[in-house]
Amino acid sequence: MNGVSMANISTFLNQQLRTDESVSFIASISKKPLLAYLILTVALCFLFSLMGNFGYIFMAFMVLAMLFQCIAYIVYSISSEFVVTNQRVIGKTGLISRNTFEIPLEQGEGLLVRQSLFGRIFGYGSIASSGTGTTTVAMLYLEDPFAVRKQILDAKSLVLDITNSKEAVQ
Predict the structure, then answer these.
(1) Which UniProt keywords apply (predicted)?
(2) Which pLDDT belongs to residue 9?
(3) Which residue, 9, 27, 104, 133, is most buried by CB atoms nearer than 10 A?
(4) What's CA 81's distance to the chain center, in Å?
């Protein structure tokens, strides 16, 4: 299993694994967006405070907006998980309702890494991925998204090597 502990994935994702499938990488959700939200809120509140009484209204709305954004982030981070196996990329999101996706490694077409300014500073980002004929799926707030991308590409390379070896034998 390449040193990946099965205790680190949910029962739901564990049940989705096939008998011949092993987890090679578990992507972790970064906690650093909360720090970015805090820095942005403090900076904007300072700027709004310079506007006088009118600025305090903006400040109140800013604090409320960032509070809602932090709550949404926390819900997303505790309810989402993404794993790379030797056959596919599997993910689940959602606390009350559940959204799942899986992209077989041999069918994955492209990976797009996105990082905001704070994402680049603090080392987190998102990956959008698509499979053949499927819609694009996004994995948000990933810790070191380029390492996750490398793990997916390495796993895909292994699958393609095995597939090509089998075809060469026949």
Answers:
(1) Membrane, Transmembrane, Transmembrane helix
(2) 81
(3) 27
(4) 8
